[in-house]
Specification:
308 residues; 7 helices; 55% helix; alpha+beta; six-stranded mixed beta barrel
């Protein structure tokens, strides 16, 4: 089969490439991070394109008898009471059978079954839409007494029709069984739905808080491990050359929208304009919260060490 030839070719390519990478370490690293993923992706796309082309070629070269057999297998009319189970698969096969083929008679009969089945489905859909429209018009034009009786049947449980909930101008729950044509005092079902919605919202908020706490805990753990090596970031700060060498102050950092330290404030009323300078941080810089640091000028560098 052609697929076997394709896979053999791919295998030979990778075998030759493996022999080359064994003697060239840089080539091996380049292969692992760039060439191999590109080859795998390209090979997958080529395989999919070839498979699709082969399937189309195979379909176009089936005999009329094979087309009829596959269409009958897709329809299984005897099993499904004279209707076709898989119209989408059967129809293309039946349309490929020429008029002069011996199988055309059986194919035409099956196509008639499919045509009648499609027409019946279209008619059912038309009737359903007409019924829905008639019901909408009936509800939109019923009297207040008719609406009241409809509501009473649903409250008593003798009817189970769809309803809508809303809040009245007085702030009370109301419901309607005629698409909002008339509204009635809620019998408790809308209040129950509102409680469920509130409970679901609270559950989502609780899950979000728990997720945020887990993320914050992970950031705190990362910050603890980051205390063993520094991270240099360019930040906005009021630290400047007016600091004496080895002068140390307690400063506060603020995060950016990604949670990383972006600003260092060392004075409540800074007398100098903010600067954008590199600062070396001993401690985690991905905290997503305001933090306190001890910051010191050491020569031409500013170094901050985490307090919390």
């Amino acid at each position: 089969m052609w697929t076997g030839s394709v896979w053999r070719g791919i295998y030979r390519f990778f075998a030759a490439w493996h022999r080359q990478t064994q003697t060239h370490p840089l080539l091996a690293a380049f292969s692992a991070f760039f060439v191999l993923p590109c080859v795998l992706l390209g090979g997958t796309l080529i395989y999919m394109a070839l498979s699709e082309a082969y399937d189309e070629f195979k379909f176009n070269h089936l005999s009329p008898a094979e087309h009829l057999r596959l269409a009958q297998g897709a329809c299984r009319t005897a099993q499904y009471g004279g209707i076709c189970a898989d119209l989408a698969t059967a129809t293309p096969h039946l349309n490929k059978i020429p008029h002069d083929a011996p199988e055309y008679g059986d194919a035409h009969k099956l196509l008639e079954v499919i045509r009648l089945q499609q027409e019946a489905a279209a008619e059912r859909q038309r009737q359903n839409l007409a019924k829905q429209e008639a019901e909408r018009l009936r509800l939109a034009n019923q009297t207040r007494q008719e609406s009241y009786e409809q509501m009473q049947r649903n409250v008593a449980g003798t009817a189970r029709e769809p309803y809508r909930c809303a809040t009245s101008t007085a702030g009370t729950q109301i419901f309607s069984f005629d698409n909002g044509h008339y509204w009635w005092a809620d019998d408790g079902r809308c209040a129950a739905e509102e409680l469920k919605r509130q409970a679901a919202a609270e559950q989502r908020q609780s899950e979000q808080r728990a997720a945020h706490e887990r993320q914050q805990k992970q950031r705190d753990e990362d910050a603890q491990s980051s205390s063993y090596w520094p991270t240099t970031l360019r930040v906005d700060t009021d630290m400047d050359s007016f600091w004496l060498n080895n002068e140390e102050r307690t400063c506060t950092t603020s995060p950016d929208d990604k949670g990383r330290v972006a600003r260092v404030n060392c004075s409540a009323n800074a007398s100098h304009q903010d600067h954008s300078i590199p600062v070396k941080f001993w401690g985690g810089v991905d905290r997503d919260t305001v933090s306190d640091w001890k910051c010191r000028r050491e020569g031409d560098e500013f170094i901050c060490r985490a307090i919390d």
